[in-house]
Amino acid sequence: MSTTPTGDGYHEFRAGWRPLLAAAVATAFSSTALPFNIFGSTIVALQQEAGWGRGEIALCYFWFTLTSSAAFLYVGGLVDRFGARPLALAGVPLFAVGLALMSLTGSSLVATYTAWALLGLAGAAATPITFTRIVTQWFVVKRGLALAVCLGIGGFAAFFQQVLSTYLVEAWGWRTMFVVMAALAVLCSWPVLWAFFREPSPAEGSVVVPSAAGAGRGGAAEGLTLRETLSGYRIYVLAFAVVAVTFGISGVMINFKPLMGDAGIAPATAAWIAGAVGFSVVVGRLLAGFLFDRLWAPAVASVMLMAPAVSCLLLMPEQLSVGVALSAGLLIGLATGAEGDLMPYLTARYFGLRHYGKTYGLLLGVFFLASGIAPFIVGRVFDVSGSYAPALLAASVLFVVGGASLLALGRYPDSWPGAPRAAGEG
User: Which CATH architecture has domain 9-409?
Assistant: First the structure.
């Protein structure tokens, strides 16, 4: 079957806007987004209350990402076998409960690490692995743009989450913040998932676009099995690029608020800057998605992912103006948006939808693990050297190397070998 998308993208949006909306809202409050957006507001508060170092506190997020990454491949297999809807409806409340229970931590560093590790397991199904699966089934011709919309709304939500979490920590304490954000996660996501989040029926698929990249909508998914994917080189190139760029993005962004505070920027101003970065994530995702549908995606992503090397150099001085900090953050936000689109889009384009959940779960696990290790390393660099400058210099190199490596992916496959196989194979 040809992997070249054909058809009318307008009709895709007319038929699939409700599932897309549900997926977008849920992704904005997913376990890969919400903890990342609010964790930075707790670092200084925990440092002052418990006396822990920033590197020790940042390690909380590492344990969270470690257990999440371990669970992603399993969750991806469940999504491939049973569908995304049941996983989403069960996963969102479980994640919210786990997030609320974080309010009981803080007295012991080991207990806090354990709680974050358990949260990673609790939230493993409330992730883009689950939510983007249905988006890729409803959209083919405009898949890049649809994924950009799905993931891009999270940028607007990030602004709200950054500002609200900072306010709650300053006004009511970090424990109250976790409870409030957990309640928002389930109240905003679950109702819209229940109402709109579903796979297209065969009849709906035949009306929209009968021929497409990776799968016939409403029919059997085509593409590579996970075993076939792992036997090729592209998955490793993509994983390397994801790790390199994620080290730069996560290492800088998790520590962005403390970095700005050390550079003389007031906490309230730093929160608004961090929130504004969320809007640049939206722009980055929409721009990347628009261009992915029209140009060779690895080349587009390569340029967007190398740009934050400039940001790292801008953030190195000990004193920063608001304008410099904002400019640096916006460039990183654009790269964050492009990277978010890149993984699901290239998973479908290069490997198909037969084992989309497993393959994307593997990549997202690699991404998430890197995003957990990087803040700890950057925090430790600060604890040892008293400066973020060495880590920023290393991150600038990683942005360039990671972005450039995407050019090795080569052309999109012209067809998928073999016929669809039974669920669970490979």
Answer: Up-down Bundle (1.20)
Structure tokens at 202: 């065969």
Please give the Cα distance from 71 to 398 (Å, whole number).
27
Is residue 316 exposed (0-12), middle (13-18) or buried (19+ Cβ within 10 Å)? middle
- CA-nearest of 235, 255, 274, 275 to 367 is 235
Tens digits of residue pLDDT in 362-417: 888 888 788 778 877 887 888 888 888 888 999 999 999 999 999 999 998 877 66
Angle at 416 between CA 11 and CA 346, to 5 degrees: 60
Instruction: List beta partners, residue 223.
Output: 352
CB 131 within 8 A of CB 30: yes
* Helix 234-254 with 389-405: angle, nearest 10 deg: 150
Contact residues for 71 (Cβ-Cβ < 8 A; gap 6+): 120, 121, 124
Q: Report residue 214: phi and psi, to 5°.
A: 95, -35
Angle, helices 143-172 vs 322-351, to 10°: value is 140
For the chain, what are the domain ranges?
A: 9-409
Region 266-278: mean pLDDT is 78
Give the integer Cα–Cα distance in Å for 292 and 299. Answer: 9
Q: What is the DSSP letter of 407?
A: G
